[in-house]
Write a structure and sequence with these properties.
heterotrimer, A alpha/beta (about 250), B alpha/beta (about 400), C alpha/beta (about 475), A: about 250 residues, alpha/beta, Rossmann fold, four-stranded antiparallel β-sheet, C: about 475 residues, ten-stranded mixed β-sheet
Chain lengths: ~250, ~400, ~475
């Protein structure tokens, strides 16, 4: 689905990613783990198309197209979804209306007609149950006045409605209590199938108890220094990042 | 027009003084003043405070001094230095200019007739040069003494804060003797890169005093000007702050507390010019008004086109204790840059009924309950003073001066 | 690179033609330019007015002559030559007044169709009575019978002068006296027509009343005069919407709107204003100097002003409320957009006189391109207004680097048992907000529309449904391409 080759990224002249190679196939879930400042979130942002990140080298192939050549909204309509670490507040913009605009933008991109209002309401009432979100949140402005946990659940709720091919979850577990973590994970797991793929970016292993990854990659100082299966995450949690880094060096 | 005649005569007599290195500048300033004269309420800037009331006074310039020695580092009497224990260089303005220390733009006319008038009489001004990297705490007494009769005084303080200097100034304005005073004071602050200056001023006037004060501050890169202004209104008080954030990273905090009662009139106009990018300003003024007092607050934030990433906050709160007191407040924003964060707010209200009830239910009488709440109200401003000693002193003074509702 | 695309989009927008810029060709009876007592007598005679009104106008004229044009507002424009303006123009073949839509000049109907406001459809579908003002003369009034059943009077003010002289005489100029300001004095002298509305005691007006204004004749100033009275316990919602055809010269518009509410009465007055804003150099737009004021005379009465101002090159407008009656309420909701080289100086005055009077001010200013947007407001709490409350919120949104936003709120308080709160903020559309929307697949332009509409939401929700949709659409059209 996505082939990242030798990806180098800078932010305002500072090198953040220093040659990332990563292949993710449909049906797979990959976890990117790493200490703070290792470039995990940068990888998620650069795949989503944030303008502040400058790609200086390398390529990203997404379903046979050059991902780096596409604008942010184009990538979104092609099925790339980023669940934000810090979801943005949009004062006065109704949550439902926002979601409907987004869904219709996707449909328009695919050459489909706008969704019927009744069908849309049915769709979101299905999906909202999945995330155990209060219906009242639908009437509120996007993310405004939401608690930290509500914001994160709202992200996954949007994901459920938009049904992306490639989901990027950026520190989705931060700020969630155990119950919310379970709800969010169940939501993500329910969406996993052979057609789509997920990249989970996280600092802690605990999310991976719920969203079981097929592959785990350890990102340190802009490079993937080790890859393995889910056991690597457990090893990380036990030993800490320092030990793993040391182990590589020696 | 007797007043103006006395003024002109006073001015001309100052021209006889020898060793006057700024005579030309003073003459020019007086000419500038004469172009406009004393403004009237027709001008928006003076809409609620009529300065022409001072024309009822004979504006005889008085710079006589009395023998006074109190625990201050610097004492000015009627604008003239009578005691100076500041360790770094200080002197009169003329000496400063002769030494090439004072920037001439201090004498620039800024469409402010009271600045021009002060400049015209700036022969006794006090110049404080804070050396770079220096650390100091300075206590200043700005005394106005009147032997009886009508007089005009023109105190002027020029502060030059050197690079990375770190200074705390406590300044007290005091009026002694009897008679009617017109005080036209000016303070010019010029702050070099990285300088820090915290200025606390206590302005407590006698009954028969008309005070028009102008504070100008120019700030360079990363400098930080913190002002705590405590004004207790008497007959007519007007205090203007004009702050220019001229270089990146400059910050200014303007904190103020004003009390007025009886028929007092107190007016504050503040202008913060955000000229360059990434500067911040934080303004918080609170007032308590009793009797038939009139208070005016006009806060203006002007964000220039180059001042992207400006962060400016302004807040004015007022407590009215009687139905005869009046507040005119106008928090203005003028924004010409798009990437800025500016907020301002103003509130007018009374002490919280619920809080009053709660306190009384705990056994406090009305007066004590009221004072307790007012103490909390003024405390928010006073607590911003960083120096413990000055803060405690100001707390005691301001609590003592709290206006009563029926005054 | 971002800069380039912004410039590109700005260019595209600037070159876009004013959507409603066309001229209707109707034979008009127009006075030559100039203003003097004879002109006023001519207008008065043409309208077959009683002597008291002619005298009233002449007195206004003599007041106006002694006044000076005010220049305190934050606007800058070429001097207005009042002698170069023609003060009367009326569609000639309609001088007898049409009885029904059939009698209306088909070309005029066509004009309204182009504007998307077909009268027939409105009659049937919207259930809105329309008093259409074409230039200075009223040409069509509908639903009169239905309103008459309820005792509601809704007619051109020129008709009201003849049919209801006692009401007109009692209320005309009672809220905005002739000497109130320069433009109100001018209007009092030369007003040609406008709407009159009276809702009798205890009556809820059965439909929303609306007027569509339109400036047409070249060099013809528009001097509408509107007077609405809601008697005890009455309610009316009044809509005013304007579009104007394209012109090269600036056109002066100096309307006066007076509202009166008696005990327990309520008037909701909503405006969507889209006069021609001028071109990107600021040429040719409308000068809009309007005086609007409502008097809550009765206890527990209420007046709400809601405005969406997207047009005109100059807007000078302060819809105000004088709260005489105890427990009366005044509200002001405003969205003002200044793009191109438009200048808007607008806001409100809330004068609290009665006890427990309340006022709310919500103002949303949007500046784009070279637009300058000023909020100017006054809250005055008189000594008598014990228990008065005011809440004001003035937010500005800046889009682009050459525009400006200004806030001048005056709060003048003379009562200790009053509570006043004013908040204001200035911000831009966050890049993170646009990024977030785009990541969900929404295009940049749609993202901006979403965010701007979110910004204006508190005001739009005060508008009647169909107006809210129109207002939203107007903003979108006005902002098209102004962001990169």
């Amino acid at each position: 689905m996505i082939k990242i080759k030798n990806l180098h990224v800078e932010v305002e002249g500072t090198k953040i990613l220093k040659g990332i190679d990563l292949d993710v196939n449909a049906g797979e879930t990959h976890a990117i783990m790493g200490p703070n400042g290792s470039g995990k979130s940068t990888l998620a942002q650069v795949l989503a198309g944030h303008e502040d990140y400058e790609v200086t080298q390398g390529s990203v192939d997404y379903l046979g197209n050059d991902l780096l050549d596409m604008d942010v909204d184009e990538r979104a309509c092609e099925g790339v979804f980023l669940a934000f670490q810090y979801p943005v507040e949009l004062p006065g913009v109704n949550n439902t209306y926002f979601l409907k605009s987004a869904l219709n933008a996707h449909r328009k991109y695919r050459g489909e007609s706008e969704i019927d209002a009744m069908d849309f309401m049915e769709l979101i009432s299905d999906k909202i149950k999945l995330l155990n979100l209060k219906e009242s949140l639908l009437k509120r402005p996007v993310n405004e006045g939401f608690s930290g946990g509500e914001k994160k659940r709202n992200e996954i709720f949007q994901m459920a409605v938009l049904e992306p091919k490639l989901a990027l979850l950026d520190e989705t577990d931060s700020g969630l209590d155990i119950d919310a973590l379970r709800v969010v994970s169940n939501g993500v797991n329910a969406m996993r199938n052979e057609e789509n793929a997920t990249i989970v970016v996280t600092h802690y292993q605990r999310l991976l108890n719920y969203i079981i990854p097929d592959f785990v990659h350890v990102l340190v100082d802009g490079k993937i220094i080790r890859s393995g299966n889910k056991d690597l995450a457990i090893e990380l949690e036990e030993k800490g990042y320092d030990k793993i880094i040391e182990g590589i060096k020696t | 027009m007797k007043a103006i005649a006395a003024l002109t005569e006073s001015f001309e007599s100052t021209l006889e003084i020898e060793k006057d290195g700024i005579k030309d500048l003073r003459v020019k300033a007086f000419e500038e003043f004469n172009k406009t004269g004393i403004p009237t309420r027709k001008q928006e800037y003076w809409k609620f405070s009529d300065p022409s009331v001072i024309l009822n006074i004979e504006l005889n310039h008085n710079d006589s001094i009395i023998d006074i020695d109190e625990n201050y580092d610097l004492i000015l009497c009627n604008g003239k230095i009578v005691k100076n224990q500041i360790k770094s260089k200080t002197g009169t303005v003329s000496e400063g200019i002769l030494n090439g220390l004072v920037e001439k733009d201090i004498f620039e006319s800024k469409n402010n007739p009271f600045l021009d008038l002060n400049n015209a009489f700036a022969i006794n001004g006090c110049y404080i040069d804070l050396e770079k990297n220096s650390e100091s705490t300075i206590r200043i007494l700005n005394l106005v003494n009147n032997e009886g009769g009508e007089q005009a005084v023109y105190p002027k303080i020029i502060i030059n804060a050197g690079k990375n200097s770190n200074t705390k100034i406590f300044e007290e304005f005091r009026v002694s003797g009897k008679g009617t005073n017109f005080i036209n004071s000016v303070m010019n602050v010029s702050m070099d890169r990285g300088a820090n200056l915290e200025h606390v001023i206590l302005d407590d006037y006698a009954d028969d005093t008309y005070h028009i004060a102008n504070i100008y501050a120019k700030q360079k890169k990363d400098s930080n000007f913190i002002s705590h202004n405590f004004s207790i209104g008497k007959k007519f008080a007007r205090r203007d702050y004009n702050i220019e954030l001229k270089e990146t990273g400059a910050n200014c905090d303007l904190n103020g507390l004003y009390f007025a009662a009886n028929r007092e009139h107190i007016d504050h106009h503040t202008t913060i010019e955000h000229i360059k990018n990434n500067c911040t300003s934080n303004e918080h003024y609170k007032g308590i008004l009793g009797g038939k007092a009139i208070a005016v607050f006009n806060g203006r934030i002007h964000v220039h086109p180059d001042a992207q990433k400006t962060d400016a906050i302004q807040n004015n709160q007022n407590l009215l204790l009687t139905d005869d007191a009046t507040i005119h407040t106008k928090p203005e924003l003028e924004i010409y840059a798009d990437d800025v964060k500016c907020t301002h707010g103003a509130t007018i209200g009374q002490l919280d009924d619920k809080a009053m009830f709660y306190l009384r239910a705990r056994g406090l009488d009305i007066d004590s309950a009221r004072r307790l709440l007012m103490r909390a109200y003024v405390g928010e401003i006073i607590e911003k003073i960083s120096d413990n000693e000055i803060r405690n002193q100001m707390m005691d003074i301001m609590i003592d001066k709290l206006p009563k509702g029926d005054e | 690179m971002k800069q380039d695309s912004e410039t590109e989009m700005l260019k595209e927008y600037a070159e876009q033609d004013y959507k409603y810029g066309f001229v209707t060709d109707i034979e008009s009876e127009t006075l030559p330019p100039g203003l003097n007592e004879d002109v006023i007598r001519f207008i008065s005679k043409k309208k077959d007015e009683p002597e008291w009104l002619t005298d009233w106008r002449l007195k206004a004229y003599s007041i106006w002559k002694k006044m000076e044009e005010p220049h305190w507002a934050n606007i800058d424009y070429d001097p207005i030559d009042y002698q170069a303006i023609s003060y009367y123009s009326a569609p000639k073949n309609l001088s007898d007044g049409p009885k029904s839509l059939d009698e209306v000049d088909p070309e005029l109907i066509e004009t309204y169709n182009k504007l998307g406001i077909p009268l027939e459809e409105q009659e049937v579908l919207a259930g809105v009575a329309v008093d259409a003002v074409f230039d200075s003369m009223s040409v069509a009034t509908t639903f009169r019978e239905r309103l008459a059943e309820k005792g509601v009077i809704f007619c051109p003010i020129s008709e009201a002068v003849k049919d209801h002289p006692e009401l007109v005489k009692k209320y005309l100029g009672s809220v905005i006296p002739r000497n109130d300001n320069y433009f109100a004095a001018l209007n009092s002298a030369v007003f040609t027509d406008g709407s009159f509305c009276y809702i009798p005691p205890g009556t809820k007006c059965p439909m929303e009343l609306s007027t569509y204004f339109r400036i047409n004749e070249q060099n013809t100033g528009q001097f509408e005069r509107t007077l609405i009275i809601a008697d005890k316990g009455a309610y009316v919602s009044y809509l005013e919407g304007c579009t104007a055809p394209k012109r090269d010269e600036n056109q002066l518009h100096a309307a006066v709107v007076e509202l009166v509410t008696l005990d327990d009465a309520e008037i909701k007055y909503s405006t969507v204003q889209n006069w021609y804003p001028g071109d990107k150099e600021g040429k040719g737009g409308i000068y809009n100097f309007v005086t609007k004021r409502g008097a809550c005379r009765g206890n527990s009465s209420k007046i709400t002003w809601t405005q969406v101002e997207t047009g005109s090159s100059i807007t000078w407008k302060y819809p105000s409320c004088v709260l005489h009656g105890d427990n009366s309420k005044g509200e002001f909701y405003s969205v003002a957009l200044s793009a191109l080289k438009q200048q808007a100086d607008t806001g409100t005055k809330m004068i609290h006189i009665g006890k427990n009077t309340k006022s709310t001010i919500i103002s949303k200013g949007i500046s784009a391109e070279k637009g300058q947007n000023t909020y100017r407001g006054q809250v005055m709490i008189n000594k008598s207004a014990t228990g008065a409350r005011n809440y004001s919120q003035c937010d500005s949104l800046l889009i682009g680097e050459e525009c400006g936003a200004h806030t001048f709120p005056y709060l003048d308080i003379k009562n200790k048992k009053s509570h006043i709160e004013h908040e204001a903020s200035t911000s831009k559309i966050g890049e993170d907000q646009i990024y977030y929307c785009k990541q969900r697949g929404i295009s940049e332009e749609d993202a901006i529309n979403l965010i701007v509409n979110g910004f204006c939401k508190e005001v739009f929700k005060e508008l009647p449904m169909e107006f809210a949709v129109e207002a939203q659409r107007l903003l979108e059209v006005s902002l098209e391409g102004s962001v990169g």
